[in-house]
Structure formats: C-alpha cells, structure tokens
Write a structure and sequence with these properties.
alpha+beta, three-stranded antiparallel β-sheet
C-alpha cells in the first residue's frame, strides 16, 4: 500500500534535512529518498502513529528538485489576482508579477490558494471562519546545540515553539484581539501583529529564564512565512466531507484523509467536494474544498491538501482530454484514474 503524493512529500521533506522515517514503521527499497520507490509497511506498524522532524528550508530545496523533475513550468513570486470569466465558466486567471498583470487562459483552473480566493471572486458560494491570533516560531539555543553535539545529529539543533495562545479549537486565547478574518487585508495584518506580540512575550520569558544573557542563550531562528490561520474560507461544493462520515464508505470517494489527532479515524473524500456550486471549469483543493464542522479541521491538514491536489490534477487531465469541464465528469471515471495512480479510495 502506498499513499502517493502525500507520502512522497514526507521523503522529499527529509532529503536535504536531518529527519528519518522510523524504520519500525516503513522500509524503503529500490531507490534514494525522494525517488519513486517501493515501501513496505510491516503489520506491527498498523494502528500506530509516527512522525519525522523536518526543516522547512530543506523541504523547499527538495520541492524545487521535485518540480524540476516533473517538467512543470513554475511562476514564482506571482500572485493570482482575478478569475477570467466566460459566463459561469472560469476560463483562466489574471496574475501579477514583475512583468505586470498577465492573463493566463486555461481549459481547467485549480484553486489551491487555501482561501478559495479564485472561487469566491468567481461568485461561488463560500463559508468563512475567523481565527484568534495563534502562531509558532523556530528557535535555537545553547542547550540544543549541546544536545546536537552529544547526539551527533542536527535533528533538534533548531526546533519550535507553537500555539501562541489559541489551539485548533480557538480555545485558550485571552488577549485583546477579537476573532479575525483570513480573507480581509486589515484583519490579516492585525492577526500577524498580535501573533508576533504573543511570540515576543513568550520569547522574553524564555530568555529571562536563562539569566541576564538569555538573549545569547535562546533566540528565534525563523518566523512563519505566512499567517498561521487554520481555516479561512471554503466553498460550498456539490458534495461535502461530512463531520459524521468518519470511517464511513462514500460511493464517490476519490481518496481518504486522516485526522492527525486520532488513530483509526479516516474520511473518504467525495469528488463533488472539489467542485464549487454555481461555477464551471474550476476545481478547489485543500482547506478551501467543501467540508462540514470538524471535518474542516481534517481537510485543512497537509496530507489532505496533497491528496485533493493530486486528484484535482487527475480530474483536470481527464476533462481536458475529453474536451469537457471537471463538473461534467462522472465520479467513477475520476475514481478509476485515481485508483490507477495508486490512490486508495476506501477503507
């Protein structure tokens, strides 16, 4: 059994960093980290959780290599601005970069913004959810350096403090800032500033605990590259990942997603959850695909983003080959192609 892109990303994340996938959970044969390989899962690993540390900067280098190998044309430092509409159909996207505003026309568009920006601006019905400030930062310290030397490993030379003051259920925050939107510019600025105030407070406490020279003992190594919202805006889709559908079969499933907080809790993702109501020619993936209640906490996770992104690519390819729109495809055809790509559809 393999888990396709979501699993491949784990191996890319550690190719240029110090982490490892635990050997008692997976064995790798037939290639190097990041290559297409066969992975064997021992029976002893079933029902267990595992983790591997990774460095975001090293992961970025691995992703660069993966993208180059794929042959994809990358447009870095480019913002998706507005959908190009032909009636109800999204026929492309206006983007902007150092060359100016550019119209990119496409047979199929995939909204992977995380905030349903393209879908919302195309007129798709959406649901919004604000968040209380919450963040994390990477740090290093003399103690971590000593530990790294003793263990001859840089795996924890840089580590992180997380959470700020609000958990994933918006519990715990007691500051002055109300719940803030992730799709309004001023709110995002306020969210970032309050999050950093929390981090400054936490860092000052850490440094004070190390005495007068605490700032030389503990210091921040990196701040998040983006605002640490969990959920912001999602589409209302032709189908929805329902909160009460845990471990239930879905006849239109195009893959499964899991909850990182629980063992043996999976949701099957219906194809229609990637298709916004009222808009044609558009697929929406990740945390802005259609979910309900607690299931949104699951669709926001990285493996869910990876799965739905891969499925959207498969559906887009089928739509282009058939000269049709993704919302006109039969779910069974997408399922067949997804299964052929190695995606497990059902428990």
């Amino acid at each position: 059994m393999t888990f396709v892109i979501a699993e491949e990303l784990v191996f890319w994340s550690i190719k240029y960093g110090p982490g490892d996938v635990p050997t008692d959970w997976a064995k790798t044969t037939g290639g190097q980290q990041g290559d297409t390989v066969t992975r064997l899962y021992p029976e002893a690993a079933l029902g267990k959780r595992y983790m591997t540390p990774f460095c975001p900067a090293a992961f970025a280098l691995g992703l660069d290599e993966a993208m180059e190998a794929s042959g994809a044309e990358l447009w870095l430092d480019t913002l998706a601005c507005l959908p190009i509409l032909e009636g109800r159909r999204v026929a492309g996207v206006e983007v902007e970069n150092k060359s100016g505003r550019i119209a990119l026309r496409a047979g199929v568009v995939i909204d992977g913004t995380g905030d349903a920006d393209i879908a919302a601006r195309a007129g798709a019905p959406c649901e919004e959810l604000g968040s209380f400030p919450s963040s994390l930062y990477q740090y290093s310290s003399i103690d971590l350096a000593k530990e790294a030397v003793a263990k001859e490993s840089a795996a924890r030379l840089v580590t992180w403090h997380g959470g700020g003051a609000a958990n994933e259920f918006d519990k715990g925050y007691d500051g002055p800032t109300p719940r803030l939107s992730g799709v309004r510019g001023r709110d995002v600025s306020a969210f970032l500033m309050e999050s950093r105030r929390i981090l400054r407070q936490k860092l000052a406490q850490e440094q004070a605990a190390h005495g007068p020279d605490g700032r030389k003992q503990v210091y921040p190594a990196a701040l998040p590259g983006m605002a640490q919202y969990r959920m912001t805006r999602m589409i209302r889709g032709l189908e929805t990942v329902r909160a009460d559908a845990v471990n239930r079969r879905c006849d239109t499933s195009v893959g499964m997603i899991a909850d990182c907080r629980k063992v043996d809790a999976v949701w099957e993702v219906p194809y229609g959850s990637l298709l916004p109501k009222g808009v044609e020619g558009l697929l929406v993936v990740g945390r802005c695909s259609s979910a309900e209640g607690y299931a949104w906490q699951v669709t926001r996770l990285i493996p869910a983003a990876a799965l739905t992104g891969q499925v959207a690519g498969i559906a887009a390819q089928l739509a282009l080959a058939g000269r049709t729109a993704p919302d006109r495809l039969e779910a069974k055809d997408v399922q067949q192609a997804a299964h052929a790509a190695g995606i497990q559809l059902h428990r």
